[in-house]
Design brief:
The complex is a heterotrimer of chains A (167), B (596) and C (596). Chain A has 167 residues and is α+β, with helices and mostly antiparallel strands. Chain A has helices at 12-24, 32-43, 48-58, 62-71, 91-95, 98-109, 151-166, and strands at residues 83-88, 122-127, 139-141, 144-146. Chain A has two domains: 12-71, no CATH class; 83-166, Glutaredoxin (3-Layer(aba) Sandwich), CATH 3.40.30.10. Chain A is elongated. Chain B is globular, with a radius of gyration of 25 Å. Chains B and C meet through helix 2 of B and helix 17, helix 18 and helix 19 of C.
């Protein structure tokens, strides 16, 4: 996981990265969303300091960057867990019991939706339809998709990752 | 249809309007009032906030499936519109109830009570209960030195966002989040002091509710007035006297100088002085500074500090510090009239009275919110004691007058106290766009050429266009002048200068549209340019009626130089009357250094 | 070299989630091990549609359709089928009615009743190989248009075909193209709306994953017709596979000279770029989509002006969705008359639906317009899971409504669905059974809308929040009959006054369930009962002491330790601790756990 990027001192490597990515997109404010995507891919999240650096590169108010970041649910200003858990709450999953699965993740991880566990291992989010409705209810952990879940299976999935984290 | 007009029917009235006319405009022209909330169009300022978001102005258009927002729907040939059917009224009332269901019901204690658009529309719609209750937004109010934001009262009309971004190009405010949590905020929800806000207060001017208001300092004033140990001094800016009357039923642009002075005495101020006096002082310093820079150019082609940019407006100064730190050396180092007055009062007048500066409380009455911020800047304090202790704005003074049960209209006309009540016409016109530079030219011309002005009024510098320019002939030397009011116009002007397209020698900028007469602390003019014009005319009238109209002719100013200041831009004057600026774009602490 | 066998492995997202990539790898290894590289080829295709039975593997030329294949099965498929020519019977689909194994997909009920136009290539070709697309008449339509037809002729053909927008509204596609063509403007844009946000719909993604070139080809044709030289695909960033395949396809098309300058020597130039969404359902609305492509918050704008007149970067912009585009090349090749011969009077062609929920055959299907809901649900969909009773089908996603038993025989088309209180939407079709609470369903959709509202207009921002809260109150057992009236009034006002399509249609799930399942609402507010046992606050789990054997299974399954009791003695559930998860009910072998 990336180390948390602090506001006071933006490391020069971060500043350079922001500069490079903005340059790749011609420093065009119209490309803001692309740029933010690229930065989130790089840093894992979009801390204040990165948003300020983007605003400076594109010569637009930082408020505008922040307004865009807070509009789109894909962008996050907090670091995600090493294993980001996303519970699909699309309709197909919902009618096949996704809520109970989500509740079980909440209970097991002791965090709410949008939060990250204190040890930084897991973060919990909801998403709408990954298009695997045949396997509903579906949960993704990182790139891996788990289908036909029930609350009982949650503990097993998590313990696999706990074990992986220990190794 | 005859090609140039569109015929339609609104509430059984037939009418024809030019193509492109909205239902709202057509109805308004026909005397049919449709309530609006978010919509705001200030034609002269080229301000238009028209997101079509509040949905209060919906009307029924025959043949259309859903209701149409009158503010955004253009009239089409044969359109039949109904503005108050039961369906329309139920929709409006329901939408209003929804807005109110997320708005605190604290009208009686709200600073906007009586001036609130939301209150008025809700009243007109006859809302007596709110059927839809639920979660309400909870935001912590943000109290900056000048502006208070209570976003619990925000109705997402976006007027402030438009003013801040489109008119002022400050970009401090933006819509953030989405859905029910959407609100107008600064970047990262910081307080305004941590944002790029320049405290121009134009957001406050357009806010329909109490979400944005000026920070009130009336309690501090009342406390000082009640303290027998304190000697409380008022200074009043020129724009205040043109607008204060508005809150007491006078026509726009009525000069109420005398009544204002009397009211301040009634309130208990020990001395009532005129900021116009300090404006004359400012001209002495800024005019001299300009001539020095001009002569430096004459001597060795040195243009690094030209054009000279005026520094009377704290909103503008803050804007330069935040957005154009590279231009800081071009700002005049002369303090604003408010601060010159405070400096002279605390250093000189206290000595005349034989008291310590801490016993003096200098209260400025300003048309402006940014002045509150300006007087809190640390460079304007000596040992922690500020030169200007409290700055209140025009609406606050009106509140104080009502608070003290003073019958304003019945007051006799009072006179300013001496010595700082003496001013020339040049000091008076400081309150309107173009006024500062005109005043400066009156003095600079005579100092440069050594001859009296042939024509005292520089009519070409006057007007309400956003950006104006003129060339003044200094005895064969053309002096090129640029004027901008509104920070968006200022940005355009500055960009031209930076691009080398506009070789001005002097630039006057006032952050508010119309200059100080349209300041964020003035009675709400709602963008009515006629009101601003009346206020400007009043200042020019007062100027024309003055026996002395050039700052350097002010006898009290002359005496002050003789007694203490020695000469304009001299070492003493520098210590008392000049200041320095900070690069707030890149870190904020780097000192641009005072001019040598 | 002769290729005898083609082994198609579904590479759609659903099957990939079930590790179809490992199957593909295992098959390739096995083929190599058996030395069959020259006779057998493994192809990863896009979605086959029959997700319920995934992962799916199909062997050509004998059209053998293997379902629920595991990587371990690769060995048997290769050794038995490819080497010996014997089908692996245990992997064949079992017809639920006849209980016979069906080998050829053409004879599987799920496929038999479908007509695949938009999905014509999905599951047949390698989407990462332009050659396979071209081999199935790919880019022939573009060639035909560029070399033999004027833009007007192409538009005329599309108009005559009767194709309507598949994204939701059903606006005539040809007319849209015509308006964009006629709109004045130097630059124009063609946009593909691939921001499929409807929860439970995944047809656009499947087309892009399975047949990306059909969309690129159609966009180029669109560009030729409207006078645009640039196409933009706005796609959800959450669709990594679709993005990858699109990128590959764009690259290959450029290399083949089918995108870029002077396409096919016609002098027409056209290129395509990808733009990413970032998780906002409202960006499926075309004005919000355009704002988002411009790097702004995806807030909807009042229409008119329509994007065809003023869209991306202020230029005329034609926005169509993925499925609409996928139809275009076929229409040009087979002719408008052919297309118009399919479907109903006012809805021509076919429609893709994502069939999901409590249905046996979850998957992606394409049927002619006019097919009844009954045929889709009970014919293709194979009826309700676990022999439960059909209760409702939800079409149109969060913008649609819930239809019931009585609607099952209406032929599906735009107008019929609208008349029935729902809408076509993008094609989500969620089937619900007796265990689903319709009030909770309405709440589920509102939950979605509240989260996805852009927050611009008051009815959607606050109104949907209040709708949701009312539904919470009702499902929480605290609702009253007056609340139902409030609910209806609010829903109608939101529909009447909201700014964009998202807001205007957001109350549909509420209105349609209020109309079709009023009894269920009444049971919630009058009796405080939820007969589907879905509303937790209205549901109680208890253990019948007469039946309970004290086996402790339930107590061990309970996640919150709400069940107590000694072994071999009746157990009891503490209603204060119980979270109504239903685990005990599932675990109990004796039917002692009851719900009320």
């Amino acid at each position: 996981m990336e180390k948390e990027i602090r506001n006071e001192s933006l490391p020069s490597c971060v500043r350079e990265k922001v500069h490079d990515i903005c340059r790749e997109h011609g420093c065009d404010p119209g490309e803001l969303i692309h740029i933010l995507h690229a930065l989130q891919r790089t840093f894992g999240y979009l801390p204040e300091a990165v948003q300020e650096a983007v605003a400076a590169e594109l010569d637009i108010p930082v408020a505008r960057v922040y307004g865009v970041v807070t509009f789109y649910s894909y962008f996050t200003m907090v670091p995600k867990g090493k294993y980001p858990v996303s519970v699909c709450l699309g309709t197909a999953c919902y009618v096949r019991g996704a809520e109970a699965v989500l509740d079980e993740f909440r209970r097991q991880l002791e965090i709410g939706v949008g939060e990250t566990t204190l040890d930084g291992l897991f973060s919990l989010d909801c998403l709408r339809c990954v298009g695997a409705c045949g396997l509903a209810p579906v949960v993704s952990v990182g790139d891996r998709v788990y289908g036909r879940l029930t609350p009982e299976k949650v503990r097993g999935i998590l313990s696999d990752y706990y074990r992986a984290a220990e190794d | 249809m005859n090609g140039n007009t569109v015929g339609l029917t609104i509430d059984r009235k037939t009418m024809s309007v030019p193509p492109g006319t909205t239902i709202l405009e057509a109805a308004s022209a026909a005397g049919i009032r449709i309530p609006t909330l978010c919509h705001m169009k200030l034609e002269d300022l080229e301000y238009e906030n028209n997101p079509g978001a509040c949905r209060i102005c919906v009307v029924e258009v025959e043949g259309r499936r859903n209701l149409a927002p009158a503010c955004k729907t253009e009239c089409t040939e044969g359109m039949v519109v109904h503005t108050h059917t039961p369906r329309v009224m139920n929709a409006r009332r329901t939408v209003m109830e929804l807005i109110l269901s997320n708005h605190p019901a604290e009208c009686l204690t709200c600073s906007k009570n009586g001036y609130c658009d939301l209150q008025k529309v809700a009243h007109d719609l006859g809302i007596r209960e709110i059927r839809y209750r639920g979660e309400e937004s909870v935001f912590v109010p943000d109290r900056s030195p000048a502006i208070v934001r209570d976003m619990n009262k925000c109705i997402m009309c976006r007027r402030c966002e438009t003013a801040c971004n489109t008119i002022q190009t400050v970009g401090a405010l933006t819509a953030v989040n989405r859905g029910f949590r959407a609100v107008v905020a600064t970047a990262f929800g910081r307080d305004m002091a941590g944002s790029t806000c320049s405290y121009c207060g134009q957001c406050v001017s357009v806010c329909p509710t109490g979400a944005l208001s000026g920070r009130s300092h009336t309690d501090e004033v009342l406390k000082a007035l009640a303290d027998p140990e304190k000697i409380v001094i008022a200074q009043t800016a020129p724009a205040v006297r043109t607008a204060l009357g508005r809150d007491f039923g006078y026509e726009a642009g009525t000069l109420v100088t005398g009544k204002m002075v009397s009211a301040l005495r009634e309130l208990g101020f020990d001395y009532v002085f005129d900021t116009d006096f300090a404006a004359d002082l400012t001209i002495m310093e800024e005019g001299t500074e300009f001539l020095n820079r001009l002569r430096a150019e004459d001597a060795d082609g040195e243009r690094a500090k030209l054009p000279l940019m005026t520094s009377c407006c704290p909103g503008w100064v803050s804007f330069v510090e935040q957005h154009y730190p590279e231009l800081l050396p071009r700002l005049s180092t002369a303090r604003s009239p408010q601060q010159m007055f405070g400096s002279v009062a605390k250093r000189y007048f206290a000595r005349l009275l034989g008291v310590e500066r801490r016993r003096l409380v200098v209260v400025s009455v300003m048309p402006c919110l940014a002045k509150k911020y300006e007087c809190s800047r640390l460079e304007f304090a000596v040992d922690g004691n500020p030169d200007v202790d409290v700055s209140i704005y025009t609406r606050e003074l009106a509140r104080l007058i009502r608070y003290a049960n003073i019958d304003f209209r019945a007051l006799p006309d009072g006179e300013f106290d001496r010595p700082f009540g003496e001013s020339t016409g040049a000091g008076v016109i400081f309150g309107t766009t173009g006024g500062v530079i005109e005043a400066a030219m009156r003095t600079a011309y005579e100092l440069y050429t050594g001859r009296p002005l042939p024509e005292i009024e520089f009519v070409r510098l006057r007007g309400m266009e956003g950006i104006r320019s003129a060339t003044v002939d200094f005895d064969g030397k053309p002096v090129r002048i640029g004027i901008a009011h509104g920070l968006g116009n200022a940005r355009r002007l500055v960009e031209e200068v930076l691009a080398g397209k506009s070789p001005y020698d002097a630039i006057e900028v006032m952050a508010c549209p119309g200059g100080c007469i349209g300041g964020g602390g003035q009675p709400f003019h709602r963008g009515n340019m006629e009101v601003l014009r009346c206020r400007a005319d009043a200042l020019y009238r007062e100027d024309a009626g003055k026996p002395l109209r050039k700052s350097h002719e002010n006898p009290c100013v002359q005496e002050l130089y003789r007694e203490v200041l020695e000469e304009p831009c001299g070492p003493k004057a520098h210590e008392w009357l000049h200041t320095r600026y900070f690069d707030r774009k890149n870190g904020g602490t780097e000192d641009s250094g005072p001019e040598k | 070299m002769t290729i005898g066998w083609q082994v198609l492995v579904c590479g759609g997202t659903g099957c990939r989630a079930s590790q179809s990539e490992r199957i593909e790898k295992a098959l390739k290894e096995e083929i190599r091990r058996c030395g069959l590289e020259d006779e057998a080829q493994v192809i990863r295709t896009g979605c086959f549609g029959f997700c319920e039975k995934g992962p799916v593997v199909k062997v050509i030329p004998d059209n053998t359709f293997y379902v629920q294949v595991r990587p371990e099965d690769a060995e048997e498929i290769v050794s038995e089928h490819l080497l010996k020519g014997c089908r692996v019977r245990r992997l064949l689909y079992v017809d639920p009615e006849t209980h016979l194994r069906v080998s050829d997909s053409k004879h599987i009920g799920f496929y038999r009743k479908q007509l695949r136009i938009a999905l014509r290539n999905c599951g047949f070709i390698d989407p990462e190989n332009i050659g396979e697309y071209i081999a199935r008449d790919g880019y022939a339509a573009l060639g035909k248009a560029l070399t033999g037809m004027t833009p007007e002729e192409v538009i005329g053909e599309i108009e005559r075909s009767g194709l309507r927008g598949r994204g939701g509204g059903g606006f005539p596609t040809g007319l849209k193209w015509k308006i964009t063509r006629q709109a004045p403007g130097e630059r124009k844009y063609v946009v593909c709306n691939a921001d499929e946000g409807d929860p439970g719909a995944f047809m656009d993604r499947s087309i892009l994953e399975g047949d990306p070139h059909s969309v690129l080809e159609a966009m180029a044709i669109n560009g030729y017709c409207t006078g645009a030289s640039k196409g933009l695909i706005y796609i959800r960033a959450e669709y990594p596979l679709a993005v990858e395949r699109l990128k590959t396809a764009i690259g290959q098309a450029r290399e083949a000279g089918l995108l870029g300058d002077d396409i096919l020597g016609s002098g027409f130039s056209f290129d395509v770029e990808i733009r990413y969404g970032a998780g906002a359902f409202v960006c499926g609305e075309e004005t919000a989509l355009i704002r988002s492509m411009e790097g702004q918050r995806g807030e909807a704008m009042v229409k008119p002006p329509f994007p065809s007149e003023r869209g991306y970067a202020g230029c005329p912009t034609n926005v169509n969705n993925v499925e609409t585009y996928a139809n275009i090349p076929v229409i040009l090749l087979k002719g408008a008359d052919w297309f118009a011969g399919i479907g109903t009077e006012r809805s021509k062609g076919t429609k893709v639906f994502a069939l999901a929920g409590k249905i046996n055959n979850v998957g992606l299907i394409e049927v002619p317009m006019g097919t009844t809901l009954r045929e889709v649900i009970f014919g293709i969909g194979g009826g309700i899971k676990n022999g439960k009773k059909f209760k409702a089908v939800q079409t149109g996603g969060p913008s649609g409504g819930c239809l019931t038993e009585k609607h099952l025989d209406i032929p599906i088309d735009y107008d019929n669905l609208l008349a029935a209180g729902s809408m076509m939407g993008s094609g989500g079709m969620i089937v619900m059974d007796e265990d689903d609470c319709m009030v909770s369903m309405a709440k589920f959709y509102l939950d979605f809308t509240v989260e996805e509202s852009c927050g611009k207009c008051a009815p959607c921002r606050v109104g949907n929040k209040r709708l949701h809260e009312l539904l919470q109150k009702i499902t929480g057992g605290k609702g009253t009959e007056e609340d139902l009236e409030r609910l209806r009034n609010l829903a109608l006002v939101i529909r009447d006054t909201a700014l964009c399509g998202l807001g205007q249609t957001s109350p549909n799930p509420v209105l349609s369930t209020l109309d079709n399942f009023r009894d269920e609402y009444l049971a919630h507010v009058r009796e405080q009962r939820c007969y589907a046992h879905q509303c937790r606050d209205l549901t109680q789990y208890f253990i019948s002491p007469e039946i309970c054997r004290g086996c402790t299974l339930c107590a061990r399954a309970c996640p919150v330790n709400a069940i107590s009791g000694e072994r071999k003695h009746p157990h009891a559930i503490d209603p204060l601790l119980c979270v109504r998860c239903g685990s005990c009910l599932e675990k109990c072998k004796f039917g002692a756990v009851r719900v009320r």
